[in-house]
C-alpha cells in the first residue's frame, strides 16, 4: 500500500484540478479582454465585465478545500508545500481574473476614442502573459522546476515590451494632444498585462518552492 | 441525511456504582459513515462505545438508562439477545487480541461459534474478511501459522478481519491504533476509509489528528456529557462550543 493515504491523494488531485480550472478561466478572461480590445468588440467587453462569477466562486471553493485539507489531514513535507502553494496560487489567479476586468474597463474607454495606432505590442504582451500563466500552471501540474524557471526568465521580455509601449505612445502624445487619453489607456492596459506576468511569475516561484522547497522569491536565487 | 441512522441513542445515562459516567447523551450515528468519539480521559467516550454492544454488562454495578437503538432495535430491551447484539455490532480493541490459534481460526472463530461447519463457507469467509482487512496478500500463504506470530499492525488487522467475518454491519473501534507505529496506523486508517463503504464505524481515539483524518462526524465529550457533535470538517475548523475549541487547540485545562 502506498504510504500516502489514497483518499488524501485523491483530495490533492481534486484540488489540483480545481486550481487548473481556475487558471484556465483566468487565462481565458485575459484573452477575451485583449481580443475584444483589438477587435473593438464592445459586446465582448461587456461579457468580460459581467463574467467574474465563476472565478470568484472557484476562488472561495479552492481556499475552502485547502483550509479543510490543512485542518483535517495535517499534511507534511511536499504535501504541505503543495497546499500552501495552492492557497497562494489561488490568490494570484484571482488577481489575474481581476486584471482581465481592469483591461476590459480600460478597453471600453479606449474604444470611445479614435484609435491611436495599430495594436501590435499589446496583443504580443497578452500572448506572452498568457503563455507564462499557462506554463506556470503546467509546471504546477507536472511539478516541473525547469518549466517554472523558464516562466521566470520570460518576465523580462514582458517588462521590456511594457517600456517600449510607453515610449512609443509618449511620441504620439507629444505629437498630438488628442491622443493623450487613449494613449494613457493603452499604457494602463500594458501595465495590467505586465502585472499578469508578475502573477504568473509568483505562481512559478510557488511551484519551485513546492517541488524543491527552495524559496526563489526576491532574487534569492542569485545569492 | 437520506438514510436512517444506524444507531440512535436517546437520553442515555450510565452509573458505575454511585458515580455517573454518562449524562443524558442523545445522538444519531449515521449508517456507513465513520463517527469519531473524542475527549479527554474519563470523558465517557469509551463507556459510551461499550454501551453500543453491551460490553458494560460485563462490569458489576453498572446501571444504564435511556435507549440505544441499533437499526431500530433497542439493544437493552428485555427480549434483546446480547450474543445477537454483539454479532451485529463488532468490536476492535486498543490492544490487538488474537486468539492463540492459527490466522485462519482467528478469522472464522465467530462463524464457528455461530455453528457454521461447512469448510467452503469458512474458507470463503476467511478470504473475504482478510481481503477486506487488507491482510490477505500478506498472510494467504501462511494461514495455518499462529496469529500471535504477526506484527502488531498485522495483528490489529487480523482482529478487524475477525470482527468483520461475521458481517456485523457496525464496527466499534476503541483506540485501534494507539499501540501501532505511524505506518501501521496509516494502514488501519486507510482500511477504515475502505470499510465505511460497507460498515458503520464508531471509533474512539485520543488522537485528534486521526479523528480529523478518518471520520465523517465527530463527537466531543467532556465530563460524561456530549458537548458538540457535528461534521468533522465543521468541528475541526469552526467548533461552536468554547470547550471543543479549547480541546482541539490544546488549550484545555
How would you describe this structure in keywords?
heterodimer; A: 223 residues; mainly alpha; Methane Monooxygenase Hydroxylase, Chain G, domain 1; 7 helices; elongated; B: 253 residues; alpha/beta; Rossmann fold; six-stranded mixed beta sheet; four-stranded antiparallel beta sheet; globular
Structural class of chain B: alpha/beta
What fraction of the residues of chain A are assigned to beta strands by DSSP? under 5%
CATH fold description of chain A: Methane Monooxygenase Hydroxylase, Chain G, domain 1
Main β-sheet, spatial strand arrangement of chain B: 6-7-8-3-9-10
- Write the CATH architecture name of chain A: Up-down Bundle
Top-tier CATH class of chain B: Alpha Beta
Task: Explain what this protein looks like in three dimensions.
The complex is a heterodimer of chains A (223) and B (253). Chain A is 83% helix and 0% strand. The termini of chain A are far apart. With 223 residues, chain A is an all-alpha fold. The relative contact order of chain B is 0.18. Chain B is an alpha/beta fold and 253 residues long. Chain B has one domain: 3-Layer(aba) Sandwich (Rossmann fold), CATH 3.40.50. In chain B, helix 3 packs across helix 4, helix 4 packs across helix 6 and helix 6 packs parallel to helix 7. Chain B has a six-stranded mixed beta sheet, with helices on both faces. Chains A and B meet through helix 1 and helix 3 of A and helix 7, helix 8 and helix 9 of B.
Amino acid at each position: 500500500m502506498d504510504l500516502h493515504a489514497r483518499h488524501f491523494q485523491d483530495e490533492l488531485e481534486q484540488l489540483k484540478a480545481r486550481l487548473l480550472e481556475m487558471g484556465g478561466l483566468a487565462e481565458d478572461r485575459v484573452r477575451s479582454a485583449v481580443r475584444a480590445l483589438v477587435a473593438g468588440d464592445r459586446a465582448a467587453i461587456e461579457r468580460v465585465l459581467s463574467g467574474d462569477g465563476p472565478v470568484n466562486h472557484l476562488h472561495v471553493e479552492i481556499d475552502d478545500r485547502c483550509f479543510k485539507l490543512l485542518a483535517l489531514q495535517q499534511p507534511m513535507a511536499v504535501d504541505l508545500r503543495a497546499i500552501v502553494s495552492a492557497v497562494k496560487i489561488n490568490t494570484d489567479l484571482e488577481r489575474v481574473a481581476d486584471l482581465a476586468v481592469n483591461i476590459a474597463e480600460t478597453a471600453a474607454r479606449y474604444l470611445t476614442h479614435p484609435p491611436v495606432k495599430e495594436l501590435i505590442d499589446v496583443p504580443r504582451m497578452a500572448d506572452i502573459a498568457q503563455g507564462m500563466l499557462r506554463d506556470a500552471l503546467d509546471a504546477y501540474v507536472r511539478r516541473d522546476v525547469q518549466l517554472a524557471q523558464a516562466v521566470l526568465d520570460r518576465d523580462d521580455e514582458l517588462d521590456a515590451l511594457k517600456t517600449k509601449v510607453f515610449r512609443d505612445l509618449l511620441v504620439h502624445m507629444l505629437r498630438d494632444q488628442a491622443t493623450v487619453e487613449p494613449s494613457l489607456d493603452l499604457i494602463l492596459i500594458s501595465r495590467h498585462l505586465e502585472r499578469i506576468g508578475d502573477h504568473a511569475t509568483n505562481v512559478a516561484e510557488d511551484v519551485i518552492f513546492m517541488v524543491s522547497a527552495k524559496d526563489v522569491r526576491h532574487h534569492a536565487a542569485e545569492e | 441525511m437520506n438514510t436512517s441512522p444506524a444507531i440512535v441513542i436517546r437520553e442515555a445515562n450510565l452509573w458505575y456504582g454511585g458515580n455517573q459516567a454518562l449524562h443524558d447523551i442523545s445522538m444519531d450515528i449515521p449508517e456507513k459513515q465513520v463517527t469519531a468519539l473524542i475527549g479527554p480521559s474519563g470523558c465517557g467516550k469509551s463507556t459510551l462505545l461499550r454501551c453500543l454492544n453491551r460490553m458494560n454488562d460485563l462490569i458489576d454495578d453498572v446501571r444504564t438508562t435511556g435507549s440505544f437503538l441499533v437499526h431500530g432495535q433497542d439493544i437493552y430491551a428485555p427480549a434483546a439477545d446480547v450474543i445477537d447484539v454483539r454479532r451485529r455490532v463488532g468490536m476492535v480493541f486498543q490492544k490487538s487480541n488474537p486468539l492463540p490459534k492459527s490466522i485462519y481460526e482467528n478469522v472464522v472463530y465467530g462463524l464457528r461459534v455461530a455453528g457454521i461447519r461447512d469448510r467452503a463457507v469458512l474458507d470463503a469467509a476467511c478470504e473475504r474478511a482478510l481481503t477486506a482487512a487488507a491482510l490477505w496478500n500478506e498472510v494467504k500463504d501462511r494461514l495455518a501459522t499462529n496469529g500471535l506470530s504477526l506484527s502488531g499492525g498485522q495483528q490489529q488487522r487480523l482482529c478487524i478481519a475477525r470482527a468483520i467475518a461475521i458481517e456485523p454491519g457496525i464496527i466499534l473501534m476503541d483506540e485501534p491504533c494507539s499501540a501501532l507505529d505511524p505506518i501501521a496506523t496509516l494502514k488501519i486508517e486507510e482500511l477504515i476509509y475502505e470499510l465505511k463503504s460497507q460498515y458503520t464505524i464508531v471509533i474512539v481515539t485520543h488522537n485528534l489528528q486521526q479523528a480529523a483524518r478518518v471520520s465523517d462526524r465527530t463527537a466531543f465529550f467532556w465530563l460524561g456529557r456530549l458537548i458538540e457533535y457535528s461534521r468533522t470538517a465543521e468541528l475541526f475548523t469552526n467548533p461552536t462550543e468554547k470547550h471543543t475549541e479549547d480541546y482541539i487547540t490544546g488549550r484545555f485545562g
